[in-house]
Amino acid sequence: MNGLYDEVRLALHAIWTRRWLALGVAWGVCVLGWLVVSQMPSRYESRARVFVQLRSILPDALGTPGQAQDQKSVDTIRQTLVSAVNLEKVVRGTDLANTVSSDRDVADRVSGLAQAIKVESQQDNLFQITTSAGSPKLARDITQKLIDIFVEQNLAGDRTQSTQSLRFLDTQLSARQRQLQDAEAKRADFQNRYLGSLPGTGTVSDRISAARTQMAQVDGDLAAAQSSLAAVSGQMAGTAQSVAGAGGIPGAGPARARLMAIQGQLADARARGYTEAHPDVVALKGQLAAATAAARGEPTTGAGAGGSPNPLYLSLQAMQADKQAQVASLRMRRNQLQGDLDQLDSKLAGDPQVAAQQGQIDRDYAVLKTAYDQLLAQREQIAIRGQAQTQTDGSQFKVIDPPTLARAPTAPNRFLLLTGVLIAGVAGGIGAAFALGQLRSTFATSGRLEKAAGMPVIGAIGEVVTRIQSEERMRRLKLFAGGGAGLIAAYVLLLGVEMLQRGLAA
């Protein structure tokens, strides 16, 4: 511990004996460093926050931008705000115009502004513009000019875009209309020359497909009509053509009369479409069996025969005639469709290029018609949106925080730099004095001399200072203290100047 204490004392003694060197180095480092700090240009920042709310009086179904399109528009404006064209407008619209005299100077200023301007998105439609410049007023003017450009682009951009879009769509619609008219004329001419005598509409393949579909439907209807006709014919076979008169039939007793009545009821049920498993039909069959057995055992009382036509039989006869007419009509329709199919098949087999050519013509016409309809719908949507934007403001811009006027430079931090230079100067002076003490072979104590020489030191003589020497040393000490105080005073003076400059800039 004593050894360390001795080393510290020796080091301090070496520095103190070379204090004038330390003071000179400190002054040199501080003066040079403070000169460099004073030459650093000050940078001032101006900030502004802008909120953009895009609104539309039209629903999205009419083609106006929705929320996703609005956000995309804001992002596009935010990215293009610091483009070269906009920055050139800023240079020519602010005090920077006084510092340029040629296009090269403008390009240099634009390049510098691109590095000095930051546009940061904070929330959905809220973003901050930060500008760094050499003076507070210039920074604020640049930020304000950027906001003006932002508003100008949004207010006039949509209307200009709508006008250009309408002009482009009108040109395209005129071209599509001429192409569509040519396609319609070509289609009509082909129909008259090749397909005018063929049945149906559309291409040959479409007509064949439609005829076959109708043929299948007619076949089904014909089968159903034939089955219905067979059912009516069967019912007529089991129905009597005449019934007993009002006074009774000679030779027919009550059992036979009951049998004829049950037969009439059963025929009527079958005419209504009841199946053999229907409960009424099953009950009538049971009654018919019992009445038949009773009629067989009933004796005849006379031989005469007579009666009136059976109304049920006449009804079934009319139904049979109607079913026969329906079957005949369906057969005629089937024969007609078969003839159409034969004609279309022969046309397709005889000239297969006609079907292919017609298909190509119809496809071209359909494509042109679809494209024309889409362009027409888009034009109407853009026209409505343009009218809405002309009569109302589609966008609302609100400056949340106007451009600020900086009261102090954001860079460089001269207070910190001046203090750092002072510390570096003092440290440099002390270091220089200590290094010089280590380089010169002097011995501050007898112990260090004995250790270095390897021989014992008999004794040491202390320094004898006269009154004149003491006064001279006191005078030098005062000069040294004055030099150190002057260094501190220079540091304080520089801090005061910096504060004064900030106050004047504000």
Topology record:
Layout: H1 2-17, H2 19-39, E1 44-54, H3 67-80, H4 84-93, H5 103-116, E2 117-121, E3 126-133, H6 136-195, H7 204-237, E4 242-243, H8 254-271, H9 279-297, E5 308-309, H10 311-350, H11 352-391, E6 395-401, H12 414-439, H13 446-453, H14 467-505
Antiparallel strand pairs: 1-3, 1-6, 2-3, 4-5
Helix pairs in contact: 1-12, 2-12, 2-14, 4-5, 4-6, 6-11, 7-10, 8-9, 10-11, 12-14
Based on the model shown, name its key terms.
506 residues; two-stranded antiparallel ribbon; 6 strands
Tell me about this structure.
The chain has 506 residues and is α+β, with helices and mostly antiparallel strands. It has 14 helices and 6 strands. It has a 4-stranded antiparallel beta sheet. It has a two-stranded antiparallel sheet with strand order 4-5. Strand 2 (117-121) and strand 3 (126-133) form a beta hairpin. The protein starts with a helix and ends with a helix.
Question: Can you describe this structure in just a few lines?
Answer:
By secondary structure, this protein is an alpha+beta fold.
Secondary-structure element order, N to C: HHEHHHEEHHEHHEHHEHHH
Mean pLDDT: 75
Q: Helix coverage percent of residues? A: over 70%
Number of DSSP helices? 14
Secondary structure class reads alpha+beta
The side-by-side strand order for the widest beta sheet comes to 2-3-1-6
Biggest sheet features? 4 strands, antiparallel
Q: Report the strand count.
A: 6
Low-confidence stretches: 55-66, 245-251, 302-306
Q: In angstroms, what is the radius of gyration?
A: 58 Å
Oligomer: single chain
